[in-house]
């Protein structure tokens, strides 16, 4: 396509104004929104708060800020030169192949589907049993994992366009999650609970930056919770 042809090519019409138009403008963003709600903020960090108190919430806030900065700068790089941010990392030493393998492992391993399916299966089994599943419930968790993985595969194979299918699935999921959070917090949390939780954002001012005593610290839970907040 020549420069003249590109100059004469019209841009698509903007979406209409109003609520419907704004919702259409969100488009694929709702898919990213639903994917952003992961195990870090739903499972790991709530478990961390229950175990150690809210005084490590400052780490969650810091992790979210770092994620936002990295995401914005990555977008700027793509807009500026038209390349994904991974290309920028591949220009760093030691060589592009090393970074290609590093990104493959860092991206593929945390989001591998069977792992997410088993995570969902554990929650579903706990909902069914009324308690956390133990070793004796391994077959039940496995059954729920296969069910979750099958449903996920069916969803992405239904519809003419996978993007549209994911949008249709993501909208009710995102609305349900946000409504659950807002209504649950509004009707179940007391003002004193709000004050206690909010104090956790200044937990770094406490001794040991809000971390529990050494003999009570489980670094696997703490590091996983902090790492998965931006996941």
State the helicity in percent bands: over 70%
How many β strands by DSSP? Answer: 0
Per the principal axes of the C-alpha atoms, what is the gross shape?
A: globular
Number of helices: 12
Element order, helices and strands? HHHHHHHHHHHH
Q: Which runs of at least 5 residues are low in confidence (pLDDT < 50)?
A: none
- Please summarize the sheet with the most strands: none
Beta content = under 5%
Number of domains: 1
Rg, rounded, reads: 22 Å
Q: Determine the N-to-C terminus distance.
A: 40 Å
Structural class: mainly alpha
Q: Your description of this structure?
A:
It is a single chain. The chain has 231 residues and is mostly helical. The chain has one domain (38-187, 199-206, 220-228). Helix content is 70%, strand content 0%. Helix 3 packs across helix 10.
Brief descriptors of the model:
231 residues, mainly alpha, globular
SSE order and pairing:
Elements: H1 3-8, H2 19-26, H3 29-36, H4 39-52, H5 57-81, H6 85-90, H7 96-108, H8 113-129, H9 138-156, H10 162-188, H11 191-199, H12 219-228
State the gist of this model.
The protein has 231 residues and is mostly helical. It has twelve helices and no strands.
């Amino acid at each position: 396509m020549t420069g003249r042809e590109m100059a004469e090519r019209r841009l698509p019409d903007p979406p209409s104004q109003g609520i419907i138009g704004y919702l259409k403008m969100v488009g694929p963003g709702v898919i990213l929104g639903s994917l952003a709600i992961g195990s870090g903020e739903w499972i790991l960090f709530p478990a961390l708060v229950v175990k150690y108190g809210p005084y490590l919430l400052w780490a969650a806030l810091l992790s979210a800020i770092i994620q936002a900065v990295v995401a914005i700068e990555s977008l700027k790089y793509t807009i500026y030169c038209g390349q994904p941010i991974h290309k920028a990392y591949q220009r760093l030493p030691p060589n592009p192949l090393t970074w290609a393998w590093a990104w493959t492992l860092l991206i593929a391993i945390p989001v591998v589907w069977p792992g997410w399916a088993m995570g969902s299966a554990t929650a579903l089994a706990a909902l069914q049993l009324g308690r956390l599943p133990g070793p004796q419930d391994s077959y039940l968790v496995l059954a729920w994992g296969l069910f979750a993985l099958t449903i996920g595969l069916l969803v992405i194979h239904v519809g003419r366009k996978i993007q549209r299918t994911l949008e249709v699935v993501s909208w009710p999921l995102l609305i349900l999650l946000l409504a659950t959070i807002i209504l649950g917090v509004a009707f179940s949390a007391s003002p004193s609970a709000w004050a206690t939780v909010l104090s956790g954002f200044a937990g770094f001012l406490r001794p040991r930056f809000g971390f529990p005593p050494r003999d009570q610290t489980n670094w696997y839970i703490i590091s996983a919770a902090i790492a998965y907040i931006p996941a």
